[in-house]
Design brief:
The chain is about 35% helix and about 15% strand. It is of the alpha/beta class and about 375 residues long. The radius of gyration is 20 Å and the shape is globular.
Length: about 375
């Protein structure tokens, strides 16, 4: 049964740091105009958001960082008031390059440390020539059975090196071969996690976690980890409750945060036949009775399920509206009605990684 009592913050396992349960998301499908994210982050901080969720691959950390700096400089907040999350991208998955990615994000964000860093996806893309030359000295796949990927790529060293040696700069977020396919690398996720732990040891990150990992991948990290992942960020919304994975993570003392919390209603690839909780009569009816918007009802549903969440908008009114969800409650019956909208409809399938052996969605959860 979902609890009607919700909190504005949650204590993260390990450090005990208080993380705001609602984060302002900065993913815009790479469609935002210049300075739109900058203005959005400023409006979010002014509206009361104290958690900003970003990622290297969103390609807007510089705008995010400038907005945070400006709100610190004008006295609206202090650095310690703001909880900043970012994510390590797929072409930074070797142990050495994880820390490099974190350092690059810190430069763009104008920060000296990050409150939380996540591995964005368990899949790996091509690294730079220099990094791969260094990697020749170590095994690309950890020998421990618990850290092996579900399907070990054949001759991993031979398969990676020809793609990269002598190639262009591997800092391209989506490296492609001549036939237009993403060029994969095959880094052990445990090796990547060790790079995350290195970032904590270096004082670059206070907390570390995972994003878009399945239960088996999470377990492999847990077995090998010195610092356990404190949070899992995955897709959750009323049309995709992802309940088995949510319960698995909670059973491992991992906080769960939802991305795509409203079902990404503005996504460019949306079909007219796709289910949409925000437009569903059940949600619309409950919203009308509460005197709230459908979005507010869905966000409250997340909180009463014990989930944290990311929500994004560039519209000032909606930015304010999306954090104004602490002055009403949903009944158990209303929560159940919303949960009943589940259709196991996943929005982010990450098709570009489907042929990678670490593709996370081939497992049930």
């Amino acid at each position: 049964m979902a609890s009607s009592a919700v909190s504005k913050t949650v204590a993260l396992p390990g450090t005990g740091d208080q993380m705001p349960t609602i984060a302002y998301g900065t993913w815009t499908f790479l469609l935002a105009k210049p300075n739109e994210v900058y203005e959005g982050v400023k409006k979010a901080i002014e509206a009361g958001y104290r958690h900003i969720d970003c990622a290297w691959v969103y390609d807007n950390e510089q705008e995010v960082g400038q907005a945070i700096a400006d709100k610190i400089n004008d006295g609206t907040v202090k650095r310690e008031d703001i909880f900043v999350t970012t994510k390590v991208w797929d072409n930074y998955h070797s142990r050495e390059r994880v820390k490099l990615n974190v350092e690059k994000s810190l430069v763009k964000l104008q920060l000296t440390y990050l409150d939380l860093v996540l591995i964005h996806w368990p899949t790996s893309f091509k690294a730079t020539f220099a990094a791969r030359e260094e990697q020749k000295q170590v095994s690309p796949i950890n020998s421990s059975p618990l850290s092996q990927p579900p399907t070990e790529p054949p001759s991993a060293t031979e398969k990676i090196l020809p793609y990269v040696c002598g190639a262009e700069d591997g800092d391209e977020n989506f490296p492609k071969s001549e036939d237009g396919k993403i060029i994969y690398a095959f880094h052990d996720i445990v090796d990547t996690w060790k790079g995350m732990e290195d970032s904590v040891a270096a004082g670059l990150a206070r907390n570390i976690g995972l994003s878009n990992f399945n239960s088996k991948q999470i377990q492999r990290v847990l077995v090998a980890a010195t610092i356990k992942p404190c949070i899992l960020q995955v897709e959750v919304n009323p049309c995709f409750t992802n309940e088995k994975l949510v319960q698995f993570a909670k059973s491992k003392n991992i906080v769960v945060s939802s991305h795509t919390s409203l079902g990404a209603p503005g996504r460019p690839w949306k079909s007219s036949t796709d289910p949409s909780a925000i437009a569903d009569p059940v949600v619309v009816d409950i919203a009308a009775k509460k005197g709230k918007s459908p979005a507010q009802v869905i966000l409250r549903w997340h909180l009463q399920h014990g989930l944290c969440l990311c929500v994004k908008s560039l519209t000032p009114e909606r930015i304010r509206e999306n954090i104004d969800v602490f002055d009403f409650e949903l009944s158990d019956e209303e929560v159940a009605r919303i949960s009943g909208l589940n259709k196991n409809f996943r929005i982010y399938r990450q098709e570009i990684s489907m042929e990678h052996p670490e593709y996370p969605f081939n497992e049930e959860f």
